[in-house]
Amino acid sequence: MKKRKKSSDKILGIENNIFFIGLTSFFMDTATKMIYAVMPLFLISLGASKTELSLIEGIAESTASIIKALSGWWSDKIRKNKPFMIAGYAVTALLSPLFSIATTPLQVLAIRFTERIGKGIRTAPRDSLIASSVETKARGKGFGFHKAMDNSGAIIGPLLAAGILFLYKSDYHLVFLFAAIPGIFGLVTVIFFVKEAKAKKIPPLGKIKLKDFSKRYYAYLGIVFIFTMGNSTDALLLVKASDIGIEAALIPIIYMLFNTVSALFAVPAGMLSDKIGRERLIIFGYILYAVVYFGFGSANSSMAMIMLFALYGLYNAATDGVQKALAADLVPRDKRGTGLGLYNCIVGVTLLPASLIAGLLYDQVNNSIPFYYGSGMALIAAVLMVIFYMKFHGDHGHQD
């Protein structure tokens, strides 16, 4: 008698685990993007400069990113990912409402830094669990689905924030309080529905050495580093939109547009990367970023900003999940948490100098130069990615 495949293995054609990890990210991103969509204007209302705004975002993301590498290594060590996810999501869910009582930029930095530690704890183990929950040939689709769910939360979050600002006359503190609700839903989802991936028996993790990872992987990290040096905090994009004359209550709506486009194209982009190769899609994404950032630098109308935010969402869909999928392809299965932690750490740590440079250029020169700088760095990264692709074409480097 034929063994019938359980229908419970998948939900909407997506592996159970991938679906519930995505749902967790949907709730958590709804909470964090409610906050993030109003944070730049909230900080400026507290007297922060553009440089201080960039510094706060850079410090919060970068310093906490060191934890991404440590948590990835630790999850490999104990061969478990879920405990790190629970701890990380709990930190974010419980600390986010504290923004409602902040009265100075320094207090915002303290809360933002601590809350981002939660992201540092969960990110690499979560990405490792995604990679382990799906076959290599469908990995792009898996990361694409997660990115789509992540961005769906990033659509709902700014929309809710905009609604609260419209109803309560720009009461930022109320936005922060309401953000606690989806945060708790996300924590409940990861506790009760996400499972550890079933995998072949892997021997205990030994000492990590540099030679454990391939030259191709390190070359890839170098390209990601160069690109990220020009990829400063999105907070400056929201400030530029405000400088052009877009009303404060509409800023979250524009940010929502970016996330809507990203959510719509993330899964198709991931599936396309499974078919044509991840490098090609990343090259396209870098070139698109260069064009879009040049546009942000020269934009001087609301309509131009709206169109650019939509294109920025397309860039995000083509690169974010696909970059992680390529990183997962290039590292050994038994060291996947460590490898993905190192990737996430490079991206996060580089955000500090990138954001500081952009913030200083914004304050000291003008509001166009930081975006021209980002455009130039993306073009350099695109050229290097083409060389990378030509050199390693045919060497897929899958480590499963």
Domain count = 1
Oligomer: single chain
| Biggest sheet descriptor | 2 strands, antiparallel
The topology string of helices and strands comes to: EEHHHHHHHHHHHHHH
CATH class: Mainly Alpha
Question: Which SSEs are present, and which pair or pack?
Answer:
Elements: E1 10-11, E2 14-15, H1 16-45, H2 50-78, H3 82-95, H4 105-132, H5 139-167, H6 172-178, H7 180-192, H8 215-228, H9 235-244, H10 251-276, H11 278-298, H12 302-329, H13 336-364, H14 369-392
Antiparallel strand pairs: 1-2
Describe the structure.
With 400 residues, this protein is an all-alpha fold. It has one domain (12-197, 210-392): Growth Hormone, Chain: A (Up-down Bundle), CATH 1.20.1250. It is built from 14 helices and two strands, in the order ββαααααααααααααα. It has helices at 16-45, 50-78, 82-95, 105-132, 139-167, 172-178, 180-192, 215-228, 235-244, 251-276, 278-298, 302-329, 336-364, 369-392, and strands at 10-11, 14-15. The protein has a two-stranded antiparallel ribbon with strand order 1-2. α1 (16-45) packs across α9 (235-244), α11 packs antiparallel against α14 and α13 runs antiparallel to α14. It is globular, with a radius of gyration of 20 Å. 57% of the residues are buried.
In short:
The protein is mainly α and 400 residues long.
